[in-house]
Amino acid sequence: MYLVTGATGHLGKRVVRLLREQEQTVRAFVRLTSRYAELEHRGAEIFIGDLRQERDIQKACEGVEYIISTHGSTEASGGAQALDYRANIDLIDAAKAKGVKHFVFTSVLGADRGYEDAPVFKAKRAVEKYLEASGVNYTILRPSGFSSNLLPLAERFRQTGVYVLIGDPKARTSIVSTDDLARIAAIAPMVETARNQIFAVGGPEILERGDVPNIFQRIFNKEPILINPPVLAIDGIRNVLGFINPDLKASLGTFRTLLANEFYCTPAEIERLESTFGFKLETLESYVRRYISV
Known about the structure:
Helices cover about 45% and strands about 15% of the residues. It contains 12 helices and 11 strands.
């Protein structure tokens, strides 16, 4: 049996879908307030619980052979310590105690760069180190930005032609197809050469962030109206929030880190991914064309 955490998220629901298509037994860890009807319809066993409660994690791991951790905190709610760190530590401890065969952990590209102002990056890196030392077989995936996160921007662009790009348009990125990432996560436990390995996961091309509205222009045949505020604008917002909600100010440090730095995979890293997992990665343009009707 597979346990998938974050099973109603962009990545998690795709992992569950793929595993069920392979007729694997899947337990989907979901919150009571989440929308999990699709997972249930696909034949997944629904486990309703709270990842912040160790007892729920212990119960969810009963009879599980493989764990795929796809959950994470959000900038709006914060929660890096509770969800990105503590919940994964508890999952690893439960995996070790219950003899889980393989643990797939979804980290983030750049987790090893030491970004001190980014709570999610710090939490993910601490979990990586804990997992490596745990004795549990693992695969750590460090994805760049998810293609699925750009779909609302693509839809807005289709309707208005407006694209908001905060920061340097020349900053490089490797946006990964969320479907490809799910496929990698789902098959990783069965790929011998992925055992106890860390993979940078991105799309097959290195893009500049300013290329994204140009891709949308090709897809929708619409001239982009580019709004390009500096990263310093985020600093202003964070300073104001600091007087109201210090925790939210801290969590926005992750968002600022993502905007202020480059996150891309080298050709060698992409070649390693495609060779290890046995398929060609999808471009951002192909992904958007599949999901957005023109």
